[in-house]
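Listing 4. Sequential folding, example run.
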Amino acid sequence: MKVLGVLGGMGPAATVAFLAQVQALTPAQGDADHIRVLMDMNPQVPDRNTRPGEAEAELAAMALRLKAAGADILAMPCNTAHAQKAGIEAAGLPFIDMIVETVAVASATGATRIGILATPGGEALYRQALTDAGLEPVLMQGEARTGFMDCVYAVKRGDVGTAQRAAMQALARGLIDQGAGSVIAGCTEVPLLLAQADVSVPLVDSAEILARVCVDHCLS
């Protein structure tokens, strides 16, 4: 069984939810069947959108600390920060790329037009990855982009109430109305506000996908 190293804290609630999914998705009869996880919960990582160079330096340091602590494989439940993955990979451990894994699942839904719920940085990563896969990204437009970030920051301050859930549902419906045949929850705060039952097309949850891949890799 491999030891999983998690670069977390971006944001804290999303990281905790991701770890809960890793636990829930692990086939186990008792404590000893679960994966050993080493986590650096670091909410002080510089802003990935506005200070990318500083963010990459901090992520690189986190990866090295996790390696030194005994991690065999690394994962990071933050889509936006995958733009700085080179710093993480420099540690020399396998790194599970949640953008790659999520696009593979989105492609398997059979939809050719894929909606993206993500920060500007995460959206850019998914837009490129979907285009490279021969799929058409469907993007939020105008005020929806600001509204999405309002929802993300609400989750970060602990607000996952009815108003925020309704706002995220409306954003997802907007992508579907533009022709999206499935929707990527491309920010790990999204599934804290939006569930499959809330949308009429497949919801591709990047955090759940990453958790499943982590379990598979650590138990293989």
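-- end of first protein; second protein begins --
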Amino acid sequence: MVQQAGGQRSASRSVPGRPVSPGVRAYLRDYAALLESTPFPSVLHDHRWDVVLANSAYEELFAEVSPHPTAMPGDNLLRFVLFHPDAGRVLGEHESSWCLPMLADFASAVERHGPDRGLQAIRREIAQDPIMDVAYRHGVPHWLRVAGAEAGEPDGAVRPLHHPDPRWGGACRVVGETPRTLREAGYARLTLVLREAAGRAGAARLRVVPATEG
């Protein structure tokens, strides 16, 4: 995580099976400060969705999630979405708005990376859940045929979200914004752009209109 108790920035996590050059490690140390500068939940993950960096806003979003041995959002975002029993408490319309798109993204990753042990382990866990396995094998292809292949891309999607802070409304826009250096290293960044709750947003638009000079 970018921030830990006491405000100390942590080092980025290494990607298993993929060496990280000293230049990329140095880039990640500086990128952690950039990640922390946004007020919105933001995470950098690898091709398996293992979390490399995440900011304080990301931690805040998932602060009330109960412990889980393999599916914590600070460890692996995909496993959290698919396997954590609390995922639906944070991610609105969990199955249709989060699981299905993530399964489609996962299917693309499996095609790109082939016999990757981490991805295959997730595939085995999906197969152990009959409902999720049917969704992966049949639901995702049908959904992509109907909605279009671009529906599986996370960037730009507006998805329901339940934030523990009442200042934020019930939706976010998913924004993919990975710079070339990190993209070439096999990482991807996602930011959840939060929306203010309706009452606060309406109040924020009110402004004092200066009197017209005579």
